[in-house]
Fold this protein.
Amino acid sequence: MQLLTKLIYQNESIPEEQKKYVLFHIKCFLYDGSKFLLFLLFFLFINRLDMYIYAFIIMLPLRLTSGGLHFKHYWSCLLFSFGYMLLATVPLATVRLPYGVSIIMLLLCIVINGSIGPICSASRPALPQQEIILARKKAIMLTVYATILTILFWDTTLAPVGFWSIILHSLQLLIGNMIKKRGEKIC
């Protein structure tokens, strides 16, 4: 990673702000790619690969659009992400709430995901207000899409995985927002 950083910073044709942006995205790709492969192997081993892939399909677009909790170190991020996926695909995959309650909770998640965020990493450059508004609109559309998927698969074993993936993502946003607001008050 240091070699790549050195090469990017030696290239004088790339503006300084772009260099930070490029490095941020390369790090994200490498770190998240390695987590995906590790989790893929683990969930294959425990025969929950279909549930992991489904949770990943729900979680990734939401995470990319609206952010979530961020950690300073790879290992803490890895452990949190692993706990998130494990929780959604193993113990919570067997928990089915009544249909009406689930729909109300998913509608609440649409509101939460569309009004909070994006919760960005401290290492990421700040987003302009127009991008924040666009990200919130995308978060609403993606949460509606994930909700529709969950409703369509309601009679399958994947429905609870989708449901809890959406719920856990919204909880992340709420916690991330509280942390962010607390930090603003302290500063």
About this structure: The helical segments are 2-10, 16-45, 49-66, 74-89, 99-115, 129-152, 158-186. The longest helix spans residues 16-45.
